[in-house]
Specification:
7 helices, 0% strand, mainly alpha, globular, 122 residues, Peroxidase, domain 1
Length: 122
């Protein structure tokens, strides 16, 4: 159930940004940035950058705001992802990081598929 919800959310989000090569690039780079720099630092970096960077964070945040996800991860309601991440205990931080990495895996697949479809049409 969660995996199919993740996939649908990732598809819907990436569909909205289908033509943006910048968005595609930022989705693809984010997992490695999280691995190297940590979740909090990556979120702060993305929030400080361009519109497409912030859109990636908004799409991740919108997944985490879904009631079933928020409850499963014990996330506060109506708090920004940046604020929530900065206040988390270590175990919750790891769980949220894992959840975000799983979502980004789906988003990466879809941005690649959208790009491939666009190439095939030209």
């Amino acid at each position: 159930m969660i995996e199919s919800g993740r996939a649908k959310h990732a598809y819907d989000c990436t569909q909205m940004k289908k033509g943006s090569t910048e968005y595609r690039s930022y989705v693809k780079k984010m997992p490695m940035m999280i691995k190297v720099n940590g979740l909090a630092q990556t979120i702060v970096f993305y929030e400080s950058k361009s519109h497409d960077h912030r859109d990636v964070v908004k799409h991740v945040e919108s997944w985490l705001r879904k009631e079933e996800v928020r409850k499963r991860l014990s996330l506060p309601d109506k708090v920004s992802l940046m604020e929530a991440v900065c206040k988390m205990e270590t175990e919750q931080y790891r769980l949220v990081t894992y959840e975000i990495m799983e979502l980004l895996g789906w988003m990466r697949r879809f941005v690649d598929a959208h790009a491939k479809t666009k190439e095939d049409q030209t």
